[in-house]
């Protein structure tokens, strides 16, 4: 991780103080403010796990003085109920406007850590109220070297087969078992294909928890998405990857068609062909039977969306055709809608004359926008050359990332 610099824990530390009894609050809970100036906090803060970590913060100048500060530390997903909290008295300033606390437990090496601190009031029996918390993050070394083997991460969130609505935020989280701080970044890969032949998003990130706002992922209802984590994007292209998980998108009130689940192969007798019904002109209405489950599209081309399925062995009446009868418009027995099947597939059975039906002309399909993967551009000039992309500089080091506008 060439952009990181190691930061050693300070030797100054305040013990964990537990206050017994109560005192008259100097202010109200509504007046409490979030602490400021958290340290460690940021991509450059890498602590030595062989030394007890020291946390420092400040507090905005205010006529309202809290009674204490409370903090806790975690890695991975934030716990609903922290196992241990540290508390420092407001009066125990290390220097004017500055407070410290030395965490009594050694941290694990090679991990992303998060911590929260808030100002609180002693209110007597029951839980003491705490104001808005400030959030910080940092890393523990040692940093990996060229000889260290990168390990695939263990996925934490979201759960496999989770369901989201369009517009939901998605929090990706994982645990890194590599005993050192991996080089460069992790890479979140999101695709609508289980083999990741195309990517919806590829997100480089240093932290092991990252929330993607819902409006930044073009999620679509009734669609399954697949995701995985690559430990070192700068390493070999084939490794190391985590397991692959998936999630499904279905907004409240949206009814999705049942997913097709392949089962055992059985022999089903082909139903007899329905009798040919004479048309008003006296010419028998032609029929078509598909040899396999076939897409039935909104128009006579693969450029049109799939509207329905003509299942294997099912017969449908032909209602129209394109000029050379390579595509046939049918009335689908499945959803009872007009849609188009390809007449050129092997084994298709047509009874009657498809040229006897009228030629049907369909409006051209809407043009499909060619997807742009801005993360493929590694330099600012290449990124800005594509009008769909923008260059976002790193806040604490040289360089940046190319993102979609």
Your description of this structure?
With 405 residues, the protein is an all-beta fold. It is 1% helix and 32% strand. The protein has one helix spanning 380-384; strands at residues 5-6, 36-39, 45-47, 54-58, 68-74, 86-89, 98-102, 112-120, 134-140, 154-157, 162-164, 170-175, 186-191, 201-205, 209-212, 223-230, 245-249, 287-289, 294-297, 306-310, 315-321, 327-331, 338-342, 349-351, 389-393, 400-404. The strands form 7 sheets. A 6-stranded mixed sheet has the order 1-3-9-8-5-6, with no helix packed on it. A 5-stranded mixed sheet has the order 11-17-16-13-14, with no helix packed on it. A 5-stranded antiparallel sheet has the order 23-22-21-18-24, with no helix packed on it. Mean pLDDT is 83; it is low at 1-25 and 273-279.
Helices and strands, with pairings:
Elements: E1 5-6, E2 36-39, E3 45-47, E4 54-58, E5 68-74, E6 86-89, E7 98-102, E8 112-120, E9 134-140, E10 154-157, E11 162-164, E12 170-175, E13 186-191, E14 201-205, E15 209-212, E16 223-230, E17 245-249, E18 287-289, E19 294-297, E20 306-310, E21 315-321, E22 327-331, E23 338-342, E24 349-351, H1 380-384, E25 389-393, E26 400-404
Parallel strand pairs: 1-3, 3-9, 11-17
Antiparallel strand pairs: 2-4, 4-7, 5-6, 5-8, 8-9, 10-12, 12-15, 13-14, 13-16, 16-17, 18-21, 18-24, 19-20, 21-22, 22-23, 25-26
Search tags:
405 residues, mainly beta, 26 strands, 1% helix
């Amino acid at each position: 991780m060439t952009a990181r610099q190691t930061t050693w824990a300070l030797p100054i530390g305040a013990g964990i103080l537990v206050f017994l009894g109560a005192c008259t609050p100097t202010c109200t809970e509504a007046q409490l403010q979030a602490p400021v100036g958290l340290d460690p906090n940021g991509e450059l803060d890498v602590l030595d796990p062989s030394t007890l970590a020291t946390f420092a913060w400040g507090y905005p100048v205010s006529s309202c003085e809290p009674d204490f500060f409370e903090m806790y530390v975690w890695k991975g997903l934030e716990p609903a109920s922290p196992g241990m909290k540290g508390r420092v008295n407001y009066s125990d300033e290390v220097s004017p406007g500055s407070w410290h606390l030395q965490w009594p437990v050694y941290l694990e090496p090679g991990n992303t850590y998060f911590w929260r601190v808030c100002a609180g009031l002693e209110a007597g029996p029951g839980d003491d109220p705490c104001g808005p918390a400030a959030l910080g993050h940092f890393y523990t070394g040692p940093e990996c070297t060229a000889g260290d083997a990168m390990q695939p991460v263990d996925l934490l969130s979201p759960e496999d087969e989770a369901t989201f609505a369009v517009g939901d935020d998605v929090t990706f989280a994982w645990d890194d078992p590599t005993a050192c701080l991996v080089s460069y970044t992790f890479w979140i890969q999101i695709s609508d294909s289980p083999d990741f032949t195309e990517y919806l998003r590829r997100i480089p990130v240093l932290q092991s928890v990252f929330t993607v706002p819902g409006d930044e992922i073009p999620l679509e209802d009734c669609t399954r998405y697949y995701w995985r984590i690559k430990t070192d994007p700068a390493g070999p292209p084939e490794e190391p990857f985590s397991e692959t998980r998936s999630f499904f998108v279905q907004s409240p009130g949206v009814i999705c068609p049942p997913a097709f689940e392949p089962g055992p192969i059985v022999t089903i007798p082909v139903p007899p062909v329905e009798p040919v019904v004479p048309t008003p002109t006296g010419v028998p209405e032609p029929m078509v039977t598909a040899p396999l489950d076939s897409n039935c599209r909104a128009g006579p081309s693969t450029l049109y969306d799939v509207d329905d399925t003509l299942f294997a062995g099912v017969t449908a009446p032909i209602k129209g055709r394109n000029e050379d009868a390579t595509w046939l418009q049918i009335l689908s027995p499945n959803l009872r809608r007009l849609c188009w099947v390809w007449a050129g597939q092997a084994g298709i059975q047509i009874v009657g004359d498809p040229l006897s039906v009228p030629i049907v002309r369909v409006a051209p399909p809407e043009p499909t926008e060619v997807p742009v993967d801005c993360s493929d551009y590694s330099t600012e000039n290449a990124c800005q050359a594509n009008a769909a992309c923008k260059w976002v500089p790193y806040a604490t080091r040289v360089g940046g990332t190319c993102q979609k506008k």
